[in-house]
């Protein structure tokens, strides 16, 4: 069975066809989106991507979208968040259903971080575990708390709505310490140099002291912030994806020190395709 999927990020839309038999992406294509895109331009890009997939009428679609979003109704709620403001109150589901020549059957929406976590759980680094915490580290901190193949939004060890960025560490939300902008800001304050995260990571590899100090502090802090949640959720594995997690080999040691508990740490197997697979799996199990 092949499932059509759309995955929407802050600067892109990916259209894909996912095989459930092999839990693999049959084909995919990436389209550019600006965060300040108009609703008309957004719909045009979405329909171009959806038409490219070319599936029969009546197909069940999975659509992964960042929040704030009403996932049950398909309506955007992007007010004052610096992205997709034109979609605030906009019915994305209706635009997709009415805009395609081959009318979709059910259209199922889910959070993009949840789609990543479900994809890694089904076919990636969390496969074979019962309970997993999956994080995407980049412009922010995305998260999925997955138990028995279900992304949890409440319960022991689960932050509000399952979103780790609500976790407070050092008197501020976690993104003020661990995100790309936070790491860049902290390094600039420490050294006066404006470097990106991959450049700071390169300095860590070369043994540069200020970079090592900041790096170890940042990811030990991540471990300390997550530790009670990992414990109370009963997580067996913690998976890291996203652009920052590309330096997982440098992150693992300070992160483990902060966690101070026995949990498997793994880098995501496929940060690009995991959200597509997760959206497909969610669509057919929810529809």
From TrEMBL:
It comes from the Bacteria. InterPro entries: ATPase_NBD (IPR043129), ROK (IPR000600). It holds the Pfam family ROK. Belongs to the ROK (NagC/XylR) family. This is ROK family protein.
């Amino acid at each position: 069975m092949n499932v059509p999927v759309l995955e929407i990020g802050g600067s892109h839309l990916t259209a894909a066809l996912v095989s459930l038999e092999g839990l693999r992406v049959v084909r995919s294509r990436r389209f550019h989106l600006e965060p300040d895109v108009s609703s008309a331009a957004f719909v045009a890009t979405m329909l171009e991507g959806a038409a490219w997939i070319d599936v029969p009428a009546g197909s069940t679609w999975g659509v992964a979208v960042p929040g704030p979003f009403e996932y049950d109704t398909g309506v955007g709620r992007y007010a004052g968040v610096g992205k997709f403001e034109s979609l605030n109150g906009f019915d994305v589901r209706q635009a997709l259903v009415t805009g395609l020549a081959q009318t979709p059957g059910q259209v199922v929406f889910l959070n993009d971080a949840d789609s990543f976590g479900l994809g890694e759980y089904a076919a990636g680094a969390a496969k074979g575990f019962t309970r997993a915490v999956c994080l995407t580290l980049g412009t922010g901190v995305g998260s999925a708390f997955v138990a028995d193949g279900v992304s949890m939004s409440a319960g022991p060890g689960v932050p509000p709505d399952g979103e780790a960025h609500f976790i407070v560490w050092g008197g501020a939300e976690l993104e003020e310490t661990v995100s790309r902008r936070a790491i860049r800001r902290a390094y600039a304050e420490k050294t006066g140099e404006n470097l990106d995260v991959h450049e700071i990571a390169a300095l860590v590899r070369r043994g540069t002291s200020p970079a090592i100090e900041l790096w170890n502090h940042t990811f030990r802090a991540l471990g300390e912030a997550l530790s009670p949640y990992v414990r109370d959720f009963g997580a067996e594995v913690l998976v890291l994806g996203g652009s920052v997690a590309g330096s997982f080999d440098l992150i693992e040691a300070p992160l483990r020190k902060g966690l101070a508990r026995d949990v498997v740490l793994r880098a995501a197997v496929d940060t690009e395709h995991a959200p597509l697979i997760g959206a497909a799996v969610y669509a057919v199990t929810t529809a």
